[in-house]
Amino acid sequence: MERTVFFLDQKEMPTSWYNILPDLPEALPPYISPATGKLVTPQELGRIFPMELIKQEMSQERYIEIPEEIQAIYRTWRPSGLHRAFQLEKALKTPARIFYKYEGSSPAGSHKPNTAIPQAYYNMKEGVTRIATETGAGQWGSALSYSCSMFGIECKVYMVKVSYNQKPYRRILMETWGATCVPSPSTDTKAGRDALAKDPQSGGSLGLAISEAVEDAVTHENTHYSLGSVLNHVLLHQTIIGLESQKQMEMAGYYPDIVIGCVGGGSNFGGIAMPFLKDKISGKHKNIRCIAVEPMACPTLTKGHYEFDYGDVAGMAPICKMYTLGHNFMPAPVHAGGLRYHGMSPLVSLLYKLKLIEAKAVFQRPTFEAGVLFARTEGILPAPESNHAIRVAIDEALACKATGEAKTILFNLSGHGHFDLASYEEYHSGRLPDYEYPDEKVKEALKTLPKVSL
Ligand SMILES: *Cc1c(COP(=O)(O)O)cnc(C)c1O
After folding, report:
1. pLDDT tens string 313-343
2. How many angstroms is it from 229 CA to the middle of ligand 1?
3. Are 293 and 261 in contact (CB under 8 A)?
């Protein structure tokens, strides 16, 4: 009998996260304060983040221990399963071996609680009683609401208005976990009121919702801000995905030739890829390929520029060097597949600039086609974001079929799609168009970059 799922015993769950910072061949550019235009100070960051996370953000320690209280909650769903996609391989008639790490078994249905839990924990340890955040379609908002409820913290979520109106189920999930969720732009902040004054019909954006949440944090007592992707400490927490995968691939008896993840802000991709990139950088497995997959509608790595840019619309969040489409980026309303952030994790950006990883942009219809084939063979209904990774995993498996190579492909199935059925319905009914972000808009956006002198 061939094994289909590789489960680790709970005793074998990693007890440290992997920090890639000390292993990078080139130092990561620093964060810049939007207020001073100079290097951001830990004191400035301390207004919105707990000190332990700020330390992790800049740490040169290769491994950072996971506190027992966090491990205890991780064990609600971790270690997560690593599956061999036998039925998908058979349908594709490929000699390639396809594996996927399934992160949809968490309470919120994605990888996001891997960082939401430690973030809520470290805030609780510092006596923070309230956290403000933003959410697009609601994945991050629900992960943080769940995590705050685990540690008795109040949670306020600014949800991008188009999603708030179109996708009520994740809002209800957040409210069930005790959070307060308002549509962004809201009247609760100056950033929101300014945006509404300019355009009362504004559907909002992730960059604007971040401005609202940061403003909320700095103007409320005992309140911090929390970000679900992009930052180093978020990617650090997500490395538990890759660390578990390495143990499970060893159980399976293979080492991956290709590791694939979708990228919005870069956290699930960074989380699965970075432990493998350690082996690439050290020369132990120097031929391993790691591929970040993004939508054609938000092609940050493949069309954006590697520059210092604001993390949000109002210029309140730290400025960082990253691939960016410009902080005023507005996603096309026709794009259903998530992954709509204008920037990219500075770590993933640097890895891409150094050519340690590759990037591919894909149209949304072929991603849904891949997701439907996956559902019909492997059974699990993927999140639209995860469909981007599946698309490229399938493309690589088909390339193996053409050449007759039996490569080992590992991708991260970052979440399930049970709350995204409306997007699947649009796809089934043929109403989902393909959209490519125009080059002129990328050029225009570059005029709005902040001036940074180091
Ligand atoms: C949020 C999310 C993503 C994108 O965010 P990253 O930080 O790039 O991982 C991908 N997949 C799912 C299921 C998500 O919820």
Report:
1. 778 888 999 999 998 887 777 776 678 889 9
2. 8
3. yes
